[in-house]
Amino acid sequence: MNIGLKIKSLRREQNVTQEKLADYLHISYQAVSKWENETASPDISLIVPLANFFGVTTDYLLDNTSNENYAEIEAINDKIASLRNIGKTTEAIKLLSDSLLIYPKEFRFMYLLANMLSGYHSTPEQEKLAKLEKYDEQAVKLCEKILEDCSDEEIRNSAKILLCYQYPKVGKRDKAIELAKKMPSLYATGSLLLASIYDGEEKIKQRQENLKDYLTQSALELLWSISNQNLGNELSNEEKIVYLKDAITIMNTLFYDGNFLFEHIRMFEIYIRLSRLMAETDNLPECLECLKSAKFHALLYDQLPEGDIPYTSRYINRLSFNRKSILTNSENSAITNFKETLKNKCFDKYRDNVEFLDLL
């Protein structure tokens, strides 16, 4: 891929104008236009500043892959994204595996494959196949290969993060701890630093993204905390209920206007877990209310339209959501998952209840 096309691709990915890039490099925007139209190339003295601006390596900018290969690689990448968007993970894994035989140094594919192998457990069938084919071990090997051979810092960092999650799964918890300790702290993340560096509208948008990420992650941490792998064995059911109600409070504070968009699925997950706890503590009224709320959020999530949809909460009104950004390992809709959840044994005692039957 020609360096001009790489600059054009990076600029568009990062929502940077030709004028802004030109100002950074102290050149005219017409010069940038010529690079991108392949009628000129940047002076060698600009390669390092260009790499720094886009957060890539000079090797990446100077590595010339043929235009034909670039077009084919991008077409494969688009196909993979489409498959993941509709939950066809098995097909995406097959396509990535085949593509790596043709492009063994395409590290984006390598990381995507590792990422999908690591998350292949949405159904009992997937879990069985993942164990049989040793997907966790494969994911680790792919990430380690990236760290050995790849010079793209963004891909390397993604591989390091994935290894922190994968190493414990393959009995290498000490390696995960060692690697995690070398990662940036919460206060040194790119998102937090950008919020300090940006000006004007960019600063506002970045701070809103950070607020959304921190609060939704806090709610999820409360949800995950009650699992048996964390505090589940130490907490009573009553204490777990408090955790989940606090998670709902956090989400309702951020999305006070009810426009949850993608986070409808998070609310669905929280209410489902809470409904099971209510059933286990024989609290039928609250169990039914939680199930109704879970169904409500599942339906709204499934009905989200295509295209960019703006959030309307005053706290995040510069942000939007697009269904195409969803990457899932399941082909099931949220409402299908809701109906599957109702088959759980904890709800057996309510199967003759009229309100419960209405949920089916």
State the assembly state of the protein chains: single chain
Shape: globular
Mean pLDDT: 89
Total discrete domains: 3
The helical percent reads 55-70%
Give the tally of β-strands. 2
Low-confidence stretches: none
CA radius of gyration: 23 Å
| Strand order, largest beta sheet | 1-2
Largest sheet: 2 strands, antiparallel
Task: Note the beta-strand portion.
Answer: under 5%
Gap between N and C termini = 53 Å
Per DSSP, the total helix count is 19
Classification by helices and strands: mainly alpha
Write the H/E string, N to C.
HHHHHHHHHHHHHHHHHEEHH
Describe the structure.
This protein has a two-stranded antiparallel sheet with strand order 1-2. The chain has three domains: 3-62, lambda repressor-like DNA-binding domains (434 Repressor (Amino-terminal Domain)), CATH 1.10.260.40; 67-183, Serine Threonine Protein Phosphatase 5, Tetratricopeptide repeat (Alpha Horseshoe), CATH 1.25.40.10; 202-358. It is an all-alpha fold and 360 residues long. The chain is globular and about 75 Å long. It has 19 helices and two strands. It is 65% helix and 2% strand. It has helices at residues 3-13, 18-25, 29-36, 47-54, 58-62, 67-85, 89-102, 107-118, 124-132, 135-149, 153-166, 173-181, 190-197, 200-225, 237-254, 264-280, 284-302, 334-341, 354-358, and strands spanning 308-310, 320-322. The model has no long low-confidence stretch (mean pLDDT 89). Keywords: DNA-binding. Pfam families: HTH_3 (PF01381). One of its GO terms (molecular function) is DNA binding.
Write the layout of secondary structure elements.
Blueprint: H1 3-13, H2 18-25, H3 29-36, H4 47-54, H5 58-62, H6 67-85, H7 89-102, H8 107-118, H9 124-132, H10 135-149, H11 153-166, H12 173-181, H13 190-197, H14 200-225, H15 237-254, H16 264-280, H17 284-302, E1 308-310, E2 320-322, H18 334-341, H19 354-358
Antiparallel strand pairs: 1-2
